[in-house]
Amino acid sequence: MRDRSRPRPGTLWIGRATNRAQWVLAVAGAACMALGITLAVDSAWTSGIAPLAMSVVGCVAAGLLMLYGTLAFVHVAVTLDGEAMEVRCGHIGVPRRRILLDQIADAQFIDRVTPRQWGGWGYRWRPDKGTGVIVRRGEAVVLRLGDGRLFTVTVDDAETAVRIIRERLGGSTPEGLAGPPR
Predict the structure, then answer these.
(1) Is 0.85 surpassed by the pTM of this model?
(2) What DSSP character marks residue 11?
(3) CA-CA distance, 182 to 174, in Å (whole number)?
(4) Rounded to whole angstroms, how far apart are CA atoms 80 and 93?
């Protein structure tokens, strides 16, 4: 198994972003699951099995959704090599997106992106903004793909990633780095 702490050969840049506040939501998800398990094991409901089953299933399902939704987006790792930019979310790297450099038309640096602009944390889609991986507020890389779609990822040192992508694309002009995509 490959050591994830070392970059692969040919890696040009690695960026990460973390949101520690989402651990609070993960604890809430674990509490929902614990409540569901407690209801299933130690229940003295006299109103019947159907309400008990619905409560147990509801608590466990809500807990699992909260746990996955938060743990999958507690952090993001972005790797840029000579072929592509790869975005991996959470502890197991899922969801993951790999965008080949020849599919990128332009890259922009945005100094302030907030979850509020995207409707929350996570893997998001907005008609006016495209697709995004938003794990925290702060700087981001915005890619304009060849088909006109946009992809945004919040990551530390995003300006360096944009510079490297632009060099690889052959247009290393620094003007417009801080502006939003047009």
Answers:
(1) no
(2) E
(3) 16
(4) 15
10 Å Cβ neighbour count for 2? 6
Which single residue is written with the structure tokens 């604890």? 27
The residue count for the chain:
182
**In angstroms, how far is CA 107 from the centroid of its own chain?**
18
Q: Mind listing the pLDDT tens digit for each residue in 7-38?
A: 677 889 999 998 877 788 888 888 999 998 88
DSSP state letters, 85-131: EEEEETTTT-SEEEEEGGGEEEEEEEEEE-HHHHTSSEEEEETTTEE
81 DSSP assignment: E
Model pLDDT for residues 127-154, shown as the tens digit of each residue: 999 999 999 999 999 999 999 999 999 9
Backbone angles phi and psi of 106, in degrees to 5 = -160, 160
